[in-house]
Amino acid sequence: MAGCVILPDGLLIAFLFAVGACVGSFLNVVIYRLPKDLSLIHPGSGCPACKTPIAFYDNIPLLSWLLLLGKCRKCKAKISPRYFIVELLTALLFVALYWIYFQTSLRRGTGGFFEGGYLLYLVHIIMLAAFIAASAIDLELSVIPLSICWFVTAVGFVGSAIAGFVYAPEVIRGYDLFPTASAKFAVLAAGALAGLIISIFLLLTGLIKTSYPSEKQETETTESAQPENYNHRLEMLKEVIFLLPIILGAFAAFKIYKNVPRFTDWWIDFSQVPVISGLFGSLWGYLIGCAVVWITRILGTLVFGREAMGLGDVHLMGAAGAVLGPLPVVAAFFIAPFFGLSWAAFCMFFKKIRQIPYGPFLSMGVFAVMILHNAVISWLQFIWYR
């Protein structure tokens, strides 16, 4: 039987590479159009210089850029190599994730690709592809479109909720394939969600004020791009006020859970239904992903008197937490600085100064945790339980 799977695996890898290249082509559209508030669907692709619509035979991922030597067929204007790089990177990522998850022992418990593994692969590859787009936009404009983060968060919620229909619940928990929540963490997530709804209501009614009110709502800066006349510490206090109902909601829900036996018994039965446990696990991962960056942002700003990190990074790690769960996203946050330090060392060695936003480093940290998942989770559990 072993010899029978070689050809299907080869065909599947080739298929995933082709699909990845096509997805990368779409990501290029997202990277170019989304920051400009342009439709991602209409009109079709055209040359950025002369606006000539691109024929289908000049719009083949990877091949067209090479055959045209990186130039428009009509006006000969140069086409950025970013288009080729994004397509190639996405195609390689599609193949790499499949290989790591299903052809190596780096990620245990995934099963076969066609035996349930496709759901894990689909959810994770959607996140990675979206993070490529977010990182490219962040590199160019120092902003992360919130719509990308919200899309990934929704994928995480849905994937975690339906995972119990594909994998056995004990397999999901045993191998940490998708976020799940115990009754205790589920009630914390539910209380925090209630508090978040209250905070958003207070914000919409003007009872509490948004920080840095001149920022656009559909994107969030990832570097300090605010005018110097802002009192940054005061702006952080506004964010602390926004977070208070969330913290109090989680605390109140937990107290009820601990002190009202009738509610406790009902909640344990309700929250441990696989769909509910997965949904609350993803929500808890989202909240922890946001919290670990937001705490750093607030404390850093209060200490240094200027904006530290951006709300775009908060949403990015929240989305990662919704997909991966709380422990992996915390690990990713603490791994990301090593990529930043590596870049700083590179710049120092080659005497180049190119400051880049933190979003790409966070995305690299997320990918590193996905690759080293088993080792990271084992280490975190050892630290937690020793």
Proportion of residues in helical segments: 55-70%
Radius of gyration (CA) equals 22 Å
Strand order of the largest sheet: 1-2
How would the global form be characterised? globular
What's the total count of β strands? 2
Average pLDDT number: 89
Order of H and E elements: HHHHEHHHEHHHHHHH
Strand content: under 5%
Q: Uncertain segments of ≥5 residues (pLDDT<50)?
A: 1-7
Largest sheet: 2 strands, antiparallel
Question: Strand pairing plus helix content: what structural class?
Answer: mainly alpha
Count of structural domains: 2
Number of discrete helical segments: 14
Q: Terminal Cα separation, in Å?
A: 43 Å
Oligomeric state of shown chains: single chain
Structural overview:
- This protein has 386 residues and is mainly α.
- The protein has 2 domains: 22-91, no CATH class; 146-385, no CATH class.
- The chain has 14 helices and 2 strands; from the N terminus they run ααααβαααβααααααα.
- The chain has a two-stranded antiparallel sheet.
- The model is unreliable at 1-7 (pLDDT under 50).
Please outline the helices and strands:
Elements: H1 6-33, H2 63-67, H3 82-102, H4 113-141, E1 143-145, H5 146-162, H6 169-175, H7 183-204, E2 219-221, H8 232-259, H9 261-271, H10 274-304, H11 311-324, H12 326-349, H13 359-371, H14 373-385
Antiparallel strand pairs: 1-2
